[in-house]
Amino acid sequence: MGELEPLLNDPHLWNDAEKARKLSQEAARLRKAVEGYRRLESDLQGLLELWAEMGAEQRAELQPELERAGQELEELYRQTLLSFPYAENAAIVTIKPGAGGTEACDWAQMLYRMYTRFAERKGFSVELVDLEPGAEAGIDHAQFIVRGENAYGLLSAEAGVHRLVRPSPFNAQGKRQTSFAAVEVMPEVDDTVEVQINPEDLRIEVMRSQGKGGQGVNTTDSAVRVVHLPTGLQVKCQITRSQQKNKELALSILRSKLFEIEFKKKQEELARLRGEARPIEWGSQIRSYVLDKQYVKDHRTGEMRHDPENVLDGDLESLIWAGLEWKAGRRETAAVGDEE
């Protein structure tokens, strides 16, 4: 708040309405957190003073108040885990199967369902951008936008390679199979974030939509692919009947991708200047889902779950918060190794 106060008191602040709006929102968020902390501090102090003077029966009656205070303290702590840039933004999630053909495509589809179910549980909305079916089963590529309170902040902990071990449903002998799929997560950025895109650097292609969809989607040239020539980045959108809508959505995602590239470069440069080791993010296995042994293990945090069916149905809260603690440096990296 000390850093924001001079900016909020600047008489010229509202010359830039969008900047003023964002500063005001950030100030309101911080004030709410500070007020919550001060109220909780006062409540706990009062409870501790009473506790020393109470007998066993009275302390038992006070237990619900202590539990409420504990829940509020946990919520305040979690807010500190979501204080990094763009945590409040929508999340653009991309799922790609690894090598392994049908098995990997099926695993990618299971992950797609897991994250959409997580969004439903949180009351978030999901906007599908692109969904390409696999040759025999599952999906070959999925991209969607999750919108809700701190959507990017929460889902950022899910970025990485996810591993599935199970008896294969595609093998008559039920042979045990290992499959991999990669999950990419980036914040959606709007026009207020400066990203330079030269129209001459773009190649825009239109084509007929593929896969499932309404009749109008599949029989008109409504799908759009935008290629950013300098970087080779490609974004395809085919989910609506409107070619213009698909183009706008593809350009929006391209903006977010280019922003993420520049943001990561800056973060890596800061880490280099501080002498920090550069983390291996892409290609590193972050979590294993071992279905025949009934467990899910996060390899970064050591967090274990023994209800994989619930995890795959979107019950990700404990895994996500452990991952955010790890990202914030408040949880030690788990020892290398696996039960497998």
TrEMBL record:
Residue ranges annotated for the Prokaryotic-type class I peptide chain release factors domain, each copy included: 208-224
Annotated Gene Ontology MF terms? translation release factor activity, codon specific
User: Which domain of life does the UniProt lineage start with?
Assistant: Bacteria
Q: Where in the cell is it found?
A: Cytoplasm
Which positions bear N5-methylglutamine? 215
Q: Which UniProt keywords apply?
A: Coiled coil, Cytoplasm, Methylation, Protein biosynthesis
Record's keyword annotation contains Cytoplasm: yes
PTM annotation, UniProt: Methylated by PrmC. Methylation increases the termination efficiency of RF2.
- Please name the InterPro entries in this protein's record: PCRF, Pep_chain_release_fac_I, Pep_chain_release_fac_I_sf, PrfB
Q: Name one GO cellular component term.
A: cytoplasm
Any coiled-coil ranges, and where? 20-79
Family of this protein: Belongs to the prokaryotic/mitochondrial release factor family.
Protein's job? Peptide chain release factor 2 directs the termination of translation in response to the peptide chain termination codons UGA and UAA.
Mind telling me what this protein is named?
Peptide chain release factor 2
**Gene (UniProt):** prfB
